[in-house]
Design a protein that fits this description.
Number of strands: 5
Radius of gyration: 20 Å
Structural class: alpha/beta
Largest sheet: 5 strands, parallel
Helix content: 40-55%
Distance between the termini: 25 Å
Strand content: 5-15%
Shape: elongated
Order of helices and strands: HHEHHEHEHHHHHEHEHHH
Strand order of the largest sheet: 2-1-3-4-5
């Protein structure tokens, strides 16, 4: 980091004139442990898919069948994250952790759907530990295959409800502060979602001292796997661009599991979901974009990927005052 900051001071620009692009370039150099930083050659998006039992109680505008259908859409390259990844030079992998149906990508699947968290645990502790281990395995697989930057994405009808519960429980927030519109619910749906989060939060707060117990009671196999994935990425010294509120919830828990992991993450964007701003503040992360996005899939993170690539190339490839023969600051 110190070498990167020193290099920024001798590039052909006033120091600080590129704002946060300079900060991000320095962060990449620190993650890689080298300055100038290396260009990214294999950015990789992993979308974690799973259904949630709470969706049966009217907290989403879409039916649960959409989760499995969207897995097929990812595999065909037809989702927003596929298009954005193509633009940014990334590739996409989707894993079925808890889809309530059969998919071609369920080799690590823990179960079908989850318990309805407002009245029962999402997972058993054994299922939760299996999901976390699967997430760690996926991170290892991707890094071993050459991924040098990772993005976690989500797909699961109803998943903003457990995400709000996780964020509220670990930040001490009240239910009404974290409830968003998700897929676009109406006022009646918002009231049902608020009640579900209120009831789930009572149960979640019994487990805030134990991250695994919290994930078991209040998440789902997809979110638990994501938490393992994010923590393991830090263990493997691999930078991560975080997406929206669901990934943010997994990140808040991952930081509890592996304190300091957040140093390896950058926030791609700030979701329109109110809980996401709370999660980012808790993690002391500033978003790169604020485009009022709330799709998930990793879309907001991948939209920010070109900025991270640009920041890296600026630090690595800009001329210095000496190499360009330009007079520096007096």
């Amino acid at each position: 980091m110190r070498e990167a900051e020193a290099r920024q001071a001798v590039l052909t620009k006033p120091l600080g004139s590129l704002g946060r692009l300079e900060e991000i370039g320095n962060w990449v150099a620190a993650c890689q442990g080298t300055c100038p930083p290396r260009p990214f050659t294999r950015p990789r998006v992993v979308v974690f898919a799973g259904d949630h039992g709470v969706a049966r109680h009217g907290v989403s505008a879409f039916p649960s069948e959409v989760t499995g259908q969207m897995v097929g859409n990812f595999l065909k390259g037809g989702a927003a994250v596929n298009v954005l990844a193509q633009v940014a030079g990334a590739t996409v992998r989707v894993v079925d952790m808890a889809v309530d149906g059969d998919t071609p990508v369920g080799e690590l699947k823990v179960r079908r759907s989850s318990g309805s968290i407002d009245r029962e645990d999402a997972l058993t502790r054994e299922e939760c530990e299996a999901a976390i281990a699967a997430g760690r395995q996926i991170a290892d697989e991707e890094v071993d295959a050459g991924a040098d930057l990772l993005v976690a994405g989500d797909m699961g009808i109803g998943n903003t409800t457990p995400s709000a519960v996780l964020i509220a429980s670990l930040t001490g927030s009240e239910p009404v502060a974290v409830v968003g519109r998700g897929t676009g619910i109406d006022d009646q749906g918002w009231m049902r979602k608020t009640a579900a989060i209120r009831d789930a939060l009572r149960r979640a707060r019994l487990n805030i001292s134990d991250p695994v117990a919290l994930l078991a009671s209040s998440s789902g196999a997809d979110i638990a796997a994501m938490a393992g994935f994010l923590a393991q990425a830090a263990v493997r010294r691999t930078p991560v661009i975080l997406d929206g509120v669901v990934v943010g919830a997994a990140a808040v828990v991952a930081e509890e599991m592996a304190p300091g992991a957040r140093e390896w993450w950058v926030a791609g964007h700030q979701s329109a979901e109110p809980a996401h701003a709370i999660a980012l503040a808790h993690l002391s992360l500033k978003p790169l974009l604020e485009f009022e996005m709330r799709l998930g899939e990793g879309s907001g993170a991948v939209a920010a990927l070109p900025l991270v690539i640009a920041a890296t190339k600026i630090l690595a490839e800009m001329a210095t005052f000496d190499s360009a023969g330009i007079s520096g600051k007096d």
